[in-house]
Design a protein that fits this description.
4 helices, mainly alpha
Length: 122
Amino acid sequence: MIIDLDTLDPANLPAEVAVSAVSMAELATGPHATNDVDERARRQDRLQRAEAAFDPLPFDSDSARAYGRVYASVAAAGREARGARAVDLLIAATACAAGLPLSTRNGTNFEALEGLVDIVVV
């Protein structure tokens, strides 16, 4: 959701927003994931604005423990829990450990987490 933050209707967002360090790491890859100079500049600008606006929630030992529960829930549902999906699950584990809802544009990425994380599709 953070990549779309400036295009979302503020009325659909919570009053307070937190960002995980894992989300910031994902955002940091953006400028390096394109060869288009203009797109790289847009992504770098987005990264710098996010870095200035947020003090990210760390992926700490509580998050690591929560990741085990998140992974088990997803795997038990027969969904992919490794590879590129693992990043989404690390973000979900951070929200789980912090007791915070996870707002996302891609609710299907977080299916099978009922009871662990409140997923809010915006």
